[in-house]
Amino acid sequence: MPDPSRDFRFGVEVLLETRPAWLATARLGLVCHPASVGQDLMHSADRLREAVGPRLVALFGPQHGMRGEKQDNMIESADGFDRRLDLPVFSLYGAVREPTEEMLCSVDALLVDLQDVGTRVYTFVSTMAACLRAAARFGCKLVILDRPNPIGGTQIEGPLLEPAFRSFVGELETPMRHGRTMGELARWANARLGLGCDLEVVAMHGWRRVFYWDDLGLEWVAPSPNIPMLRSALCYPGTVLFEGTNVSEGRGTTQPFELVGAPFVDSYRLVAALERHGLAGVQLRAVSFEPTFHKWAGQLCGGVQLHVRDRAAFEPLRTAVALLAEIRALAPDDFAWRTPPYEYELHRMAIDLIAGSDRLRAGLEHGKALDWLETAGDDIARFRRETAPYELYE
Fold first, then answer.
1. Which of 20, 220, 263, 286 has its CA 20 to 30 A from that of 110?
2. Buried b vs exposed e over 59-98: b needs ≥16 C-beta within 10 Å?
């Protein structure tokens, strides 16, 4: 079998190999984070500074900061200055989450080089959408330097986000697991929302939809502090739901989003209860863990670890909904939904924003947990049809 890593290039690498005409004169801004690296692990800011010199004029950081230094959610970053590169760093996570005219006044082309994880509830896609709107409004060219969807481009899971539940954790009307790259989502969103942005996507070379991250032989650099491994990203489209509850999603451990539990969970009863769901591609192992921070810090939690045995068969969202239903059934007096505020939302329930609907919560509360998932077929078919013209890869 051919080695796909031999022919693969990230979008930023393709940009600097092909050098389109605008690159010779444009003043550049770069939206980036720690995972904005090439195959040699050189950061895109360093790569661009080396290539264009002082025409790299500004850096922009999403949630967790440009350097990824903010460990938890909802910890804002301030504007700053990169002394090594002698560049201003504008925060796009805080009171201001969309580039302003002042930020873009010296920028001809804003480059977005963010590593996504293939899940709607990941704010880097929201930051990309904010950059689309700002670039259209202020007449700035927007360039997406495309990157792989690390959990593949073929599997899609979950109903579409309902417009009434749009938020910073769910900006675009996609399924939970969307199976698209950042560049493909940008092309689709620009057209669907009628933004008219001067958008260019620098496609990767050598990426195919069937590839997972490790098929490419690439080093994993955490795009955010709690996605430390590819395994975390594989589970994330499902276990992110637990952010909307008082059950730990494994933050404060070395295995976030692979571990789920709380002090009131009986691990072995939970594993036994889950057997009736016939969950494919995953083994759920009874565990105990003690988070060092976040929910239940310093307290012993019972729960499960998700071991993905067959990622082609594994459905992370279905697995997480089954987990939610059984934990709630086993500990109805202790289980609780997380109350606002959550990610700049002061009134709507966190679980509804994450699920993109209140139908999951209503189903769980009425003993019909999987009803919400069973409606997803038509939504997924519609999403595939709508995004097909904007796909860039086989």
1. 220
2. bbbbbbbbebebeebeeebeebeeeebebbbbbbbeeebe
